[in-house]
Amino acid sequence: MFDFDDYELWFVTGSQELYGDEVLQTVADHSREIAEYLSNADEIPVDVAFKPVLTSPREIEALVHEANADADCVGLITWMHTFSPGQMWINGLRSLDKPFAHLHTQYNEELPWSEIDMEFMNTNQSAHGGREFGFTASRLGLNRKVVVGHWKAQRVLEKLGTWTRAACAWEDIRGAKIARFGDNMRHVAVTEGDKVEAKMQFGCTVSGYGLGDVVEYVDDVTDDEIDATVSQYETEYELAPSLREDGDRRDSLREAAAIEVGIRTFLEDGNFKGFTTTFENLTGLSQLPGLAVQRLMADGYGFGPEGDWKSAMLTRAIYVMGQGLEGGSSLMEHYTYHLTPGEEKVLGAHMLEISESIATDPVSVEIHPLDIGGKADPVRAVFDAETGPAVNASLVDLGDRFRLVVNEVESVEPDEPLPELPVARAVWKPKPDFETAIEAWIRAGGAHHTGYSQAITSEHLKDFADIADVEFLVIDEDTEIAAFEKELDWNEIRWRLDNT
Ligand code: MN
């Protein structure tokens, strides 16, 4: 559903003509070497293409136009080997429609102390060339990643890699289509939002469909397709006795398989990257899609329940950013609390729809009543999540802007086994502590639905928010309520000025 091999970064070096051919040749040689090194670095998941050194405004503009028009190019890495006068960049940078990262590095790691002469000084001017470029980008008010250090340094590769993943998620979401089966859960506020604004801000289209549109697909699923899907379930999961071959609920498992194949085919036919459902709009479907959603999410489809298209967008972007990294990601909901002082934890789950990409073995497939919605009992995968560092992220619509709120958390084992809980779940401790994290989250208007990930970090989400130009708030080990409240107040002014 997503392949980094489809994308590339362009390595762009700034200079100017007055250095002469010899220096410019050295600059080009160094740039090519760095681009190749970055291209081969495991931390950066796409190829990095070397581009000829830019020495004039016309060349810069031509390159920007080429990048804008190139569907494979997810962004530019810019480097000023020498001094490249900022005014040369203004027209080009103003028309750049792709993300860029300013790599502030220099070719040599060590100064050649005993040999350094004016020729060396003339050729290696990143320290001031990068400042001229930085001023120009700041003067233009452009969002960009700034990465400082030697180009072989681990931290530099990691930061570039993180930003690359965000740039790929951006390219992916800009053309994305989300299918919304049914509308919003009635009366719910946070799952609503301005879909026109979403198109303007993220380039993502959210299209509504009646349940009849997907029911047609489910009805067209053949017995052979159901057999094939059920046999996958038998291979991958521990089936509850009633769902096994001679079990008395076997028909419900077959129905779940038909729903999965039907939705999958609908999404494939329409080239969708995400979807929403809501238990209040299920006309024609016998059961709420549970297992189907869990499996489709694990395959890369973004998902939001109760019509939550913003979560569908966000979980898709998180999936893309996390591809190839250790750990899965999922739609999540802050469901219920353990409030013993000093031991506070959040139990995250949903009615059903947690991606199996975050599961630990064993994954059992069970059938239980939903107790809400008045439909047949839905089939679902039940499991505990992997433990370790994770993030919860929420994209909300404040009316005049989108805000991305992120909380860094530590996923932990449940205090005790949960044998009676018939849904997939994660248990976590929020940073910096329960009281601060939850108060900050609530003050920020963070939703109950989140994109939860053990693959990516808040830095990926920060880079994504910067590229999308939306407000970003992180709640992490350094968060203090008094400062966070001020940040909220300041942001209110900053973003309202930005929108005038
Ligand atoms: Mn929900």
Describe this structure in words.
Helices cover 39% and strands 21% of the residues. It has helices at residues 21-40, 57-69, 90-95, 118-123, 126-139, 154-174, 195-202, 211-219, 223-236, 250-270, 291-298, 309-322, 434-443, 458-468, 481-498, and strands spanning 8-14, 47-50, 73-80, 100-104, 145-148, 177-181, 205-209, 238-239, 274-276, 302-304, 329-338, 345-349, 364-367, 379-382, 388-397, 402-412, 425-430, 449-453, 471-475. The strands form four sheets. It has a six-stranded antiparallel barrel with strand order 11-12-17-16-15-18. A five-stranded parallel β-sheet has the order 2-1-3-4-5. It has a four-stranded parallel β-sheet with strand order 7-6-9-10, sandwiched between helices. The chain binds manganese (II) ion. Manganese (II) ion is lined by residues 305-306, 333, 350, 449.
Brief descriptors of the model:
15 helices; six-stranded antiparallel β-barrel; five-stranded parallel beta sheet; alpha/beta; elongated; 19 strands; 500 residues; binds manganese (II) ion
Secondary structure elements and pairings:
Blueprint: E1 8-14, H1 21-40, E2 47-50, H2 57-69, E3 73-80, H3 90-95, E4 100-104, H4 118-123, H5 126-139, E5 145-148, H6 154-174, E6 177-181, H7 195-202, E7 205-209, H8 211-219, H9 223-236, E8 238-239, H10 250-270, E9 274-276, H11 291-298, E10 302-304, H12 309-322, E11 329-338, E12 345-349, E13 364-367, E14 379-382, E15 388-397, E16 402-412, E17 425-430, H13 434-443, E18 449-453, H14 458-468, E19 471-475, H15 481-498
Parallel strand pairs: 1-2, 1-3, 3-4, 4-5, 6-7, 6-9, 8-13, 9-10, 16-19
Antiparallel strand pairs: 11-12, 11-18, 12-17, 13-14, 15-16, 15-18, 16-17
Helix pairs in contact: 6-12, 6-14, 8-10, 9-10, 10-11, 13-15
The structure holds manganese (II) ion.
The site of manganese (II) ion has 5 residues, from loops.
